[in-house]
Design a protein that fits this description.
single chain; alpha+beta; Aminoglycoside 3'-phosphotransferase, Chain: A, domain 2; five-stranded antiparallel β-sheet; two-stranded antiparallel ribbon
């Protein structure tokens, strides 16, 4: 895929600006005289929920105010969405919950709008936060960016701050909070089983009538090796990685992107955090770059997390594999989406849609783990 040609949205920015302005005038108190000064979609906009950066002015208590906002909008079904559903209400609610119950930095949320006729999908609006985000394209492990070019001490501060934020999220546990709205509607006697069944269903939706032997083998392995040494259930961020965080002075100032949130053991998030770095690190090494091998080593992440959360965590090997295997399904869908938009060509071997197929095979046969500090 050509990163410069990836389609993230087919919506008309000018139409969305006019629609958002009309909605804002109707939503704010009478006499607000709201106007949208600027509405843009950032170049880094993802392929899931669409992000709109909005600068708006309105009258409040007789004075003119200007606010910098962000709207997260459900993608249209015609844009070959990455996921089956986009529960913007859930995302809005979990962000408010984490903001209310912890000191984890969450952008202030303002409104949730369920009516898809406004912007073409449900959406919520939050404050815009200033900060730096580790890049995904090209990944921060490739060099020539603020993470790579920083000192070893700075990178360790980034890592530890991210892990502490994760521990803060996990302090919201099912034994003390009503998290029914985050429970996955899947069979299973534990949240981890329900999580695995949720991703099995997603896998079936993605592959449809073109199955992948590799992904089938992955889910057999996950089922046969389901761990029991997990921590108590808590809010699971779902897509917890530094690419979904903003930083200032190497400290987290905003935790973003909650579309994969659920109830799960903390180890699920920790495995995802470790693996998404390993994914970028492996890509860098494969292309002859040194990468950042000392960041997000599982042994270090587990130790920092234990200090922050006040309890040890289970073995992360299965959870790292779970992350890699879920990511494999997502990568297949993302690549198929690019084929749909004419940005990539269909390969002869269906598993070539999965960029880290060799990693998955290595995890299944055990050869991958020799280089991982568990």
């Amino acid at each position: 895929m050509d990163a410069d040609r990836i389609t993230t949205s087919t919506r008309d920015p000018q139409a969305m600006r006019d629609q958002f302005e009309a909605w804002l005038r109707a939503t704010l108190p009478a006499g607000n005289e709201a106007e949208v000064v600027e509405l843009t979609s950032p170049e880094s906009n993802g392929m899931s929920s669409e992000t709109l950066l909005v600068t708006a002015r309105w009258t409040e208590d007789g004075a003119k105010v200007e606010r910098r906002l962000v709207a997260r909008v459900e993608p249209p079904t015609t844009d070959y969405p990455v996921f089956t559903t986009y529960d913007l209400d859930m995302q809005y609610r979990v962000m408010r919950l984490v903001a209310e119950q912890t000191d984890v930095p969450i952008p202030e949320t303002h409104w949730y709008e369920p009516d898809p006729s406004v912007l073409g999908g449900s959406f919520f609006v939050m404050d815009r936060v200033d900060g730096l985000v580790p890049p995904d394209v090209l990944p921060y492990t490739f060099g020539d960016n603020w993470v790579f070019d920083g000192t070893e001490e700075a990178r360790r501060t980034i890592q530890d701050s991210a892990v502490r934020a994760m521990a803060g999220i996990h302090s919201i546990r099912t034994d003390a909070h009503d998290l029914a709205f985050l429970e996955l509607d899947q069979p299973g006697s534990t949240s981890l089983e329900r999580s695995l069944n949720h991703w099995k269903a997603y896998h079936e939706w993605v592959v449809k009538d073109t199955p992948s032997t590799l992904l089938d083998d992955c889910f057999v392995w996950l089922t046969e090796n389901l761990p029991t040494d997990t921590s108590p259930d808590a809010v699971s961020w779902g897509d917890g990685r530094i690419g979904n965080m903003m930083f200032r002075d190497n400290e987290v100032v905003a935790v973003l992107d909650w579309e994969m949130a659920a109830v799960a053991p903390p180890e699920v998030d920790l495995g995802w955090m470790c693996y998404l770095h390993l994914f970028f690190q492996d890509l860098a090494v494969q292309l002859g770059a040194p990468g950042l091998p000392d960041m997000f080593r599982p042994v270090d992440v587990a130790a920092t997390y234990a200090r922050a959360a006040g309890h040890e965590v289970g073995d992360l090997r299965w959870h790292i594999a779970y992350a890699a295997m879920r990511h494999g399904v997502i990568m297949r869908r993302v690549t198929e989406r690019s084929i749909f938009f004419g940005e990539a060509e269909a390969p002869a071997d269906i598993d070539d849609l999965i960029i880290h197929r060799d990693t998955l095979r290595g995890m299944l046969d055990g050869t991958y783990w020799s280089g991982i500090s568990l």
